[in-house]
Amino acid sequence: MSGKKLLISLCAVALFVACSEEKSEPLPDLQPVEIPKDVPGLYSGRLPCDDCTSRMVRMTLSEDSSVVATQLTLRDTMVTDTLRGTYVVTDSSIKISLSDNQLHWNFKRIKFGNLRYMTSAGVPYEDKDGLHADFIRIYKAPLKPVARNSAEPDSSAEQKPVATDSSKE
User: Fold this and answer.
1) What pLDDT digit, counting tens, does each position of 127-160 carry?
2) How far apart are CA 125 and CA 107, in angstroms?
3) d(C-alpha 57, C-alpha 43), whole Å
4) 85, 89, 95, 96 alpha-carbon torsion, rounded to 10°
5) How does DSSP assign 81-142, residue by residue?
6) Neighbours of 164 (CB within 10 A)
């Protein structure tokens, strides 16, 4: 019994000595994580519409201050419009002019690079349920090529179930 205690004690001392001799080197300085704060990008959201069921917009704000917005309006049928124009950034707001200054949208920059639609009075729009018309910034990751292993079966091939006739059993 005392042999086991001695062995355990020696192992504990060896472990303690091995750990205490480890020299800790300072960690390298890490680059700070930068969250994109610029306005240019792809945004998607809904806008208020008094004479339609739904009005969804997907817009691209380019670095040259140009805007391309694709608007899907649902009434009795769905109508798609492509609108072009420019935008100006002032403080925390973005003013968008589309279709030769025929149409104006104002947004406020909110968390995570998203935008909130503002009324002509300069206050955030709220629908009857108290929801805001927010546009979500869509971040696209670059596509990476996927290596295909020829040994693996093609997952795109459709496998059809075999029908059995249970009346013959």
Assistant:
1) 999 999 999 999 776 566 666 665 555 544 444 4
2) 10
3) 8
4) 20
5) EEEEEEEEEETTEEEEEETTTTEEEEEEE-GGG-EEEE-TTSSB-B-TTS-B-EEEEEP-PP
6) 8
